[in-house]
Amino acid sequence: MNRKVTGDGGVRLTPSLLCSAYRAGIFPMARARGDREILWMDPDERCVLPLEDFRLSRRDCRSLRRADFVVGLDGDFRRVVRACASREQTWINHEIEAIYGDLHDMGTAHSVEVYASGGGALVGGLYGVALGGAFFGESMFSNVSHASKAAVQFLVERLRGEGYILLDVQFQTAHLARMGAVDISRENYHRLLAEALQKECCLQTNKTDVDDKS
Question: Which of 85, 88, 169, 190 has the maximum number of C-beta atoms within 10 A of its C-beta?
Fold first, then answer.
């Protein structure tokens, strides 16, 4: 798959610039944690997870019930981002980590936290950006089996409940494909994005959210 990639040209990354990029269908990446250059991505194909097509196997559902995770929204955004960046290979450099923290403070970026049974250790999560009726998933992590599935399930249910219509997950993986993610053309993605940006949706972050897997 070809990717349209441009360097930042020394342009300072700001919350306003980042939101404008998302609205134009573009997202940032770095080559490595310590690389300061920002690459702007507009792939020929984009992976989306159609909210109405999200699925988990019966086996996964049983595993989630047994795991009895506690799942919440915006409980520890910066810790989730750091966990996502704490891999041998990551596209989240220090500037990207900081700017998404700023977006979270503005109420534009959100995280899902997955805690061990009984509200113990943080064992998984994800974060992304919400604009209009679109949620742009950026990264996820999982320290135990099925924690990332719990995070995605929780996110999908919240997005459905708040009227969102687009969940962008950027690039396809086998993990996402099993949950219903599909690749679409850049043209179709931009059409869906334009429709989603016309909506006015809001994730309610002032609630204590617990997913009891009932």
Answer: 169
3.40.630.70, 1.10.357.10, 3.30.70.330, 3.40.30.10: CATH of 44-197? 3.40.630.70
- What is the pTM assigned to this prediction? 0.90
Pairing assessment for the beta strands 134-142 and 166-170 based on DSSP bridges: parallel
Rounded to an integer, what distance in angstroms lies between the CA atom of residue 155 and that of residue 148? 11
Query: What is the mean pLDDT for each group of 10 consecutive residues in the chain (214 residues)?
Result: 46 89 95 90 95 91 90 96 91 94 96 88 97 97 93 96 97 92 97 98 65 40
168 closest CA partner among 154, 184, 157: 184
- What amino acid occupies position 186? R
What residues are paired with 141 via a beta bridge? 125
